[in-house]
Each structure stands twice: as structure tokens, then as C-alpha cells.
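Example record

One chain of 109 residues, shown exactly as stored in the release files.
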Amino acid sequence: MRLLSESVIQPLPPNDGRDWDCQCARCGSSADWRECDMCGGDGVDGHDCGEDCCMCRYPEDNVRCDYCRGYGGDYSCMSSPEYCEENPLVGRGEVERGKIEWFTFEEKR
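Predicted C-alpha cells for this chain:
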């Protein structure tokens, strides 16, 4: 039996119910989740209730974080910038550092 893999290069895994793993799309090194420094990982930064003068008794953050686009963080290459730049995978010399490749061996449901 031959297992076929599927892969995509994008910031987050496809939301299709399958189990996806990731690596650096340039050098193939492991990738790990980094929490957003601006919002603390919850994806929101600031409060806006739509009023010019907020009268909310206990305002909760509800404005999407501009830095992480509301995701709460991102995945990044675990190798040093120097290693990643100098050791691209075959055919990946044009892929910029920081791009994440998601892959799975599960069949589409």
C-alpha cells in the first residue's frame, strides 16, 4: 500500500478535519507556534463597543489584533536565519524564510 501525501504552503493548516503537520517551506526544518507579543495569544487587542465615549462597566477586548490578524500567533522556522537561507530544499531556493508548509498523509474525507 502506497501512502500519498498532500501539502500546501500557507500560514495555518487547512481546516478540513484531517491531521496536518508542518515544517519550514524553505529549508524543511521543524516549525513551532509562537504566541503573538502584541495580544498575548488571544487574538484581540483593545476594546471598541461602537460608542464615542465607552460606558461599558467591564470592557472586554474585542478588537482583532492587527499584528497576528486575530490568530493569536504564527508558526516559524526553528532553524537559525543563516541556516535556513543557506540550505533550501531542492527546488525551494525562491521560497522566502518564514513560509510554512503543511502536509498530511490522510485521505480526504
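Notes: Helices lie at 81-86.
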